[in-house]
Amino acid sequence: MSNWTGFGAAILALTLVLLVLTRRSRRVLDRIAEDGERSRSRANYPTDPVEKSLDGEPSDGTADREADDAERGHPTDGVERDHPTDGVERGIDDSVSTLALFANVTITQALFFAVVVAIAWGSDVPASAFGVGPWAGAGSVRDLAAIGRATGYGFAAGLALYVLDDLAAALAERAGYGAPDRLRETLSPATRREWAALLVVVLPTIAVFEETLFRGALVGAFAIGFGIDPWPLAVGSSIAFGLGHGAQGRVGIAVTGVLGVALAAMFIATGSLLAVVVAHYVVNAAEFLTHGWFGTAPGDPLRPD
């Protein structure tokens, strides 16, 4: 027999821990950004193209830069050299690499997911309460068709939600309430290897864990186990979902909360955890690809030329 009381208490405690850690993560991101700004300041050289030398003649600043180089221990043979910028342009100090951040995020999310699974298993809560249908282990043609439909619904919904999410962020920015891009900038890949890690490992792990907790457990399982209407649960879980993205600022929390309501509505309508996992992944992947790979800003189509 399912221990719904123990399950509910443990899931709520886990959600609270997650929100506390989110606040701490925001402080870490702030520190990384501040370190990056200091690194950029140290790496910058005088940019005034014309400076006055001691004899009053124009100077391009070469002598001053060579003097600075000598003080810093850099070669002063007059040959221009590229100075290291790894981790500086992206606002990350040299001690923190993008792949290290990816590993940290992936491991943390995977551990939280394992805790949710362990809580459900220990409380004898069935997988069906999370929206995981019998197709998960059956493998018949009919079940594969259901998987395909859920994946298709999730992909289409994810694209639509990304467009709406992007437009909402753009409208907020135009109204003077732009959300900070620190999180996306910190995790933005710079190499093909990093892009592969982000798209194949990091984002799927985030989507699986967050949907399992915020939609599967806090909406689906709670509605079945406690006989509660799922719609109030959808609102409550979406508030927690938004607060869990506190690194994106107040506007980011609001936009993410609304996105959570949309994902919860999709979960209630389809009863499929797979569909919302795919939709969540598509939203995140599309955001990184359009803003990171293609370099567009939120809501560029709304901006005048």
Automatic annotation (TrEMBL):
Q: Write out the entry's keywords from A to Z.
A: Hydrolase, Membrane, Transmembrane, Transmembrane helix
* A Pfam family it matches: Rce1-like
Q: What is its EC number?
A: 3.4.-.-
Q: What class of enzyme is it?
A: hydrolase
Composition bias of kind Basic and acidic residues appears in: 62-90
Instruction: Give every CAAX prenyl protease 2/Lysostaphin resistance protein A-like domain span.
Output: 195-285
Ranges annotated as spanning the membrane = 6-22, 99-121, 152-172, 193-209, 221-243, 255-283
Q: Name one GO biological process term.
A: CAAX-box protein maturation
Annotated stretches, region: Disordered: 35-90
Establish whether keyword Nucleotidyltransferase is in the entry.
no
The family database entries (InterPro entries) matched by this protein are listed as: Rce1/LyrA-like_dom
Q: Which GO terms describe its molecular function?
A: endopeptidase activity
Kindly provide the name given to this protein in its UniProt entry. Answer: CPBP family intramembrane glutamic endopeptidase
